[in-house]
Amino acid sequence: MSTFSIFLVLITIVCFLLIVVIMVQNPKGGGLSSTIGGSQMLGGVQKTTDFLDKSTWTLATILIVLILFSSLSFTGTLSDTDSKIIDNTTTTAPVAPVQNTPAATNPAK
């Protein structure tokens, strides 16, 4: 398994977790915070909101770092010198041979 494939799997996992954390939040104050009910459970509504906010920023930062590292670890199979397209465009088509035909001579009158 290549390094790029490992980064791809990690990016996919972080994206899934980021989607879950964002979907739990509700921009209107609902979401997970409102379903907890009171301040007695899990440290209160404010603690839950802080946790979701920090986890969103943390996962987003991890995602950006993984994307940057994956682009650094990516080694393409073709480089500029090994490109098939460049090889095809640099070759010239064979030129048709020029046929030497004698010039038509018209006798002067």
UniProtKB/TrEMBL annotation:
UniProt record, GO biological process: intracellular protein transmembrane transport; protein secretion; protein transport by the Sec complex
UniProt key word Transport: yes
Membrane spanning stretches: 6-24, 56-74
UniProt topology in membrane: Multi-pass membrane protein
NCBIfam families the record matches: secG
Role, per record: Involved in protein export. Participates in an early event of protein translocation.
Name of the featured protein: Protein-export membrane protein SecG
Organism: Flavobacterium fryxellicola
